[in-house]
Write a structure and sequence with these properties.
Blueprint lengths: L1 H4 L24 H11 L2 H10 L4
Length: about 55
Amino acid sequence: FLSHNVLGKKGWTVRYRPWRVVYVKFFNNKQKALEYESFLKTGVGRAWISKHVDFN
């Protein structure tokens, strides 16, 4: 995570650093990971995040 999120000098989220990992989930294949990422970006997925992930 360090080189990808902390050392970059440009991008959409560069001004919101430093990043902190609050949730990690591993997948057996890339397709399942992409499907889960898409789910998290939906309204239902964002509600799930709010309910299950502690950001403090």
